[in-house]
Amino acid sequence: MKLLLSFTFLLAALASATDIETSLKSAGIKVVGPTDPAYATDIFDYNLRFHYQPALIAYPTNAAQVSKVVKAGTTFNLPVTARSGGHSFIANALGDGRLVVDLSLMKNITVLQNGATVEAHIGAGNRLGDIALALNEHGRAIPHGLYAYVGIGGHGGHGGYGLTSRLWGLNLDRIIEVEVVLANGTVTNASLTTNPDLFWGIRGSSSSFGIVTDIVYDTLPRPDYAIAFEYVWNLDYTTAAQAISDYQVFVNNIPQELGLAVEWNRGNASGFVTLEFGGAWYGAEGQVESVLQPFLSKLPTPSFGSLLGNGTWIDNIATLAQGPLDTSLAPDTNATFYVKSLVTPQEAPMDDNTLLQFMKYLATEGFSTPLDWFVQIGLYGGNASAINAVPQDATGYTHRDSMFTMQIQVTQVPVVTEAGFSFVEGVADTITGNMPPDWDYGSYLNYIDDRLVDWQHRYYGVDYPRLQALKRSYDPTNLFRFPKSIEL
């Protein structure tokens, strides 16, 4: 019955799509539908686990055109979703029978002085690499992630972590105003003084409330010096567990200018894991080695250890991106993967037994499995973190007492099998199952997990009731709906 209803809905959506397509094209809006040659390419998603058939994809060039698309969705009763860069891990920008608003033609970037503030007005169709290049031309920067092809809309709307975030905060913490199209088609603005309730929710769960078309950032001077670094070891799991225990202590005594991440991969033998310790330093030249030394001194000599880059800000971003920042130079890539995330609390670090079981699992199950996997642990907290300095109720992003955010990922071709899902969930269970039952961990919305059951609490925490009230106010018909969107 459920399959029949879904098929019936899809047929109705496709019938409506014909009328919408005619209407939008007459308004000068580019539209791609199932009969267009470009359709198969345009629905190709970042995560190839998902294969959706939207009713139409519209390509507006300004907020007024976005408004027309949104109104068409309301008129013909089609759910509407926005696509900035298309990097949702569960393809939330797509979906069967949906009207997709692709923002890729909205790529304006304007930098201007407004009193003491140097603002950047950034169209929601821009990608991180292109933004970094444009701001660098003005000697400015904002915090953001490493991968050049990620779109700013979803990235900033749901968090936006990067290695500068301990120093500057999340990407959404630098947003001072947005232009947004609401479910009724109204084009409005939101800031601390205009629609402040909407502004609160957009900074944490933007895609549930409207389509953000333009974002205004309070930019920062680019650092005078920026250098990446990486160290690699192959460790037995008891030594690896002790390393993470030492790391949890180390990060409580580091400067804001140090951004860190560790990554675990398959070891070279059963019982071993590979540890990659990396990050970036944004303080004075010549100091990073001494800052890292208290942690490095507790480990054996690494198989690899080096500073990476020439010390300039833009080279640092390119080094960390591991590729060109200009996204016009090469097409984006795809993969077939499953991801789960854990956000660990600052005040309740993982205990030694949990760390031992965690490392043992990676060193045994992780070695014996044929799966391609990694576990990356980004440092959100630690000493003087700007992320945690923001009051918990200041934005719709709830995790303001976090230590680490873990990304647990498996990649398989051609599909992720049950063994892949089980391995990822097994990694997470070695942590959550060994910590006390009241250990209040969370999950990160930008590493969204389609199999997560208690997602309302893990993603949104105590903010969820307030977000629901906001949803009922600004989108009472649930036009902007997708898996894990805020419920009415």
UniProtKB/TrEMBL annotation:
<keyword id="KW-0560">Oxidoreductase</keyword>
<keyword id="KW-0285">Flavoprotein</keyword>
<dbReference type="InterPro" id="IPR050416">
    <property type="entry name" value="FAD-linked_Oxidoreductase"/>
</dbReference>
<dbReference type="InterPro" id="IPR006094">
    <property type="entry name" value="Oxid_FAD_bind_N"/>
</dbReference>
<dbReference type="GO" id="GO:0016491">
    <property type="term" value="F:oxidoreductase activity"/>
</dbReference>
<keyword id="KW-0274">FAD</keyword>
<feature type="domain" description="FAD-binding PCMH-type">
    <location>
        <begin position="50"/>
        <end position="222"/>
    </location>
</feature>
<dbReference type="Pfam" id="PF08031">
    <property type="entry name" value="BBE"/>
</dbReference>
<dbReference type="InterPro" id="IPR012951">
    <property type="entry name" value="BBE"/>
</dbReference>
<comment type="similarity">
    <text>Belongs to the oxygen-dependent FAD-linked oxidoreductase family.</text>
</comment>
<dbReference type="InterPro" id="IPR016169">
    <property type="entry name" value="FAD-bd_PCMH_sub2"/>
</dbReference>
<protein>
    <submittedName>
        <fullName>Glucooligosaccharide oxidase</fullName>
    </submittedName>
</protein>
<feature type="signal peptide">
    <location>
        <begin position="1"/>
        <end position="17"/>
    </location>
</feature>
<dbReference type="GO" id="GO:0071949">
    <property type="term" value="F:FAD binding"/>
</dbReference>
<dbReference type="InterPro" id="IPR016166">
    <property type="entry name" value="FAD-bd_PCMH"/>
</dbReference>
<keyword id="KW-0732">Signal</keyword>
<dbReference type="InterPro" id="IPR036318">
    <property type="entry name" value="FAD-bd_PCMH-like_sf"/>
</dbReference>
<dbReference type="Pfam" id="PF01565">
    <property type="entry name" value="FAD_binding_4"/>
</dbReference>
